[in-house]
Amino acid sequence: MTGAARIVLGTRLSIMTPLPKLVAIIVDEENDSSFKQQEGLGYSARDLAIWRAKNERLPIILVSATPSSQTWHAVKEGRYQEIRLTSRVGGFRLPSVELVGPDKSSDSITINSKMISALEDNLHKNRQSLILINRRGMAPVITCLSCGWLSECNNCSSYMVMHRQLGHFKSPMMCCHHCGQAKTIPQRCPLCGDADLQPLGRGTQKIEDQLQTLFPEAKVLRVDADTARTSKKSEALFEEIHDGSAQIIVGTQMLAKGHDYQNIGLVCVLDADARLYSNDYMAPEHLFAQLVQVAGRAGRFSGEPTQILIETRYPNDPVYQYIKTFDLAGFMENLMLTRQEAGLPPFGYQALVHAEAKQRQEVLAWLNHTKEYLQSIADTQAGITIFDPVPKSIARLGGWERSQLLIESRQRGPLQALLSALDQYLRERSVGRISKIGKVRWSIERDPLII
To answer: How far apart, in whole angstroms, are the C-alpha atoms of residue 442 and residue 424?
Structure first.
């Protein structure tokens, strides 16, 4: 408040800090979705930073190796100035990228045989390897081979994940990663009583176990939300990486974010397709950014050749074709054409009306009533489209049934006016954010990141 601090470093909340002598704003990794707060008071710290810079007449720098589609579009329209770095820090060359199929080396080892050979070669060179898989635990689901039972969560429309150990539980458990419910793994199928229960898929724990079996002399380190539960544990894990004692590092995307690893010679990305083919139209953009980010961990302090192996069943997908040469411009231009044809952001504007209640019919009835109101006041000439209510991708979370209503518009102004009228209409019929009829919890989200 006094202006004594010359540089203020902070997370998304820091953008609201009163700074009497502020002269510039820098948003690092501006494309990161975590800049948007989803719960409670929803806001985008990046967009708020842009607004604040404009309002206070300050320069703002949006930094990213993979700019968001909104930022890219603004550059192409001439609203933003592009400053491009044409080489890596230190002048080191980018790693080579190779796409590999998801073949198994054996029934017990689910890691691609080409990756195993590359890991062995990298160990002989005394260099570290990074294995990325965006799934914690041993296996994402447990099934009964006799009747097909699946380990579903009672509170959520998701599966309970198998863990070798979980927190203070030292025996195998299954846990819902959404509501946190944990249970012991049943000895027999709850439906048919058969004892032939089988884990399906793989997570960080299974990959860790398999790598330790393949390379018993190597130090295999796992870094995910289970092993890095506290800042102290997290610091200890990364210290093992930086001092070189960990030779093979297995983890989730938290490994890729902003860390300077000095001796990474190989990066293997498992199950890359899991993020590509989803109901999220931004999935290709997010995957490309993640692959560039994780590739950037290799060869940062060495002129030695480095390699990225990406496991995929769809090597001809544009994301993988452009990542092979790190062709950001080609990828973004292709993405912009697809978005423009579909009228998706940044060539259109979206909003979501979120609703949840204990009974699904209450949610859908409330959203249908909301849709009728919107249709009665919407300016049809402004190109506004109001879609039918649909359940969310995770339709039940913590015992609450959840659905949403999508609104699209070709122009920002008419959409903002419509949402302001809707917000006032709903507030008059609610106590806080809970409707007086049906006890439905609701919220309105502008520019959603996930549909």
So the answer is: 13
Here the tokens at position 418 are: 């419509």
pLDDT in tens, 146-166: 999 999 999 999 999 999 877
- 3 state DSSP class of 120: helix
Locate 248 and state its tokens: 């093979």
188 in a structural domain: no
Q: What's the CATH number where 298 sits?
A: 3.40.50.300
If you search the block for the tokens 């589609």, which residue do you land on? 69
Tell me the residue range of the domain where 302 lies: 90-136+202-340
CA dihedral (238, 242, 248, 254) in degrees, to 10, reads 40
Distance CA 249, CA 264 (A): 10
Question: Which H or E element spans position 408?
Answer: strand 400-409
The band of 169, judged by pLDDT with boundaries at 50, 70 and 90, is low
Q: Are residues 359 and 437 in the same domain?
A: yes
Based on the fold, state whether residues 262 and 282 are members of the same structural domain.
yes
Q: Residue 164 falls within a domain, yes or no?
A: no
How far is the C-alpha of 90 from the C-alpha of 406, rounded, in Å? 47
198: closest CA among 167, 174, 168, 225?
Answer: 174
Q: How high does pLDDT run on average in the chain?
A: 91
> Which long-range contacts (C-beta less than 8 Å, at least 24 apart) are formed by 67-75?
67/30, 67/31, 67/332, 68/30, 68/31, 68/285, 69/282, 69/285, 69/332, 69/335, 69/336, 69/339, 69/345, 69/346, 70/345, 70/346, 71/30, 71/31, 72/332, 72/336, 73/336, 73/346, 73/347, 74/346
> Residues 357, 305: one domain?
no
The answer to whether 142 touches 175, Cβ cutoff 8 Å, is no
351 neighbors 448 (Cβ within 8 angstroms): yes
DSSP-derived 3-state class of residue 88:
coil
C-alpha 281/C-alpha 285 separation (Å) is 8
The contacts of residue 329 (CB under 8 Å, 6+ apart) are none
Same domain for 277 and 129: yes
The total number of structural domains in the chain stands at 3
Q: What is the pTM of this model?
A: 0.91
Summarised one tens digit per residue, pLDDT across range 116-145 is: 999 999 999 999 999 999 999 999 999 999
